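Continuing from the previous page...

OK, I double-checked the sequence for Sec-independent protein translocase protein TatA against my notes and this is the correct one:
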Amino acid sequence: MLNNIGLPGLLLIAVVVLVLFGRGKISSLMGEVGKGITAFKKGVKDGTQEIEDASKEARDVTPESEKDKA
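Thanks. Re-ran it with the corrected sequence; updated structure tokens here:
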């Protein structure tokens, strides 16, 4: 369905959105989207670091009698 939307169609859509919402509203919306992406990337990085730290601190709590069976 969207395979035949070309450059003129995308430009028309962009102009309509600009007219409907105005430059200021779109600018603030894009700023919020950028902040959201930055916060998401930071959260993923912090989560990965937390998992790595937890795996370094992990210790074996298997009872001695069970270790011999493995």
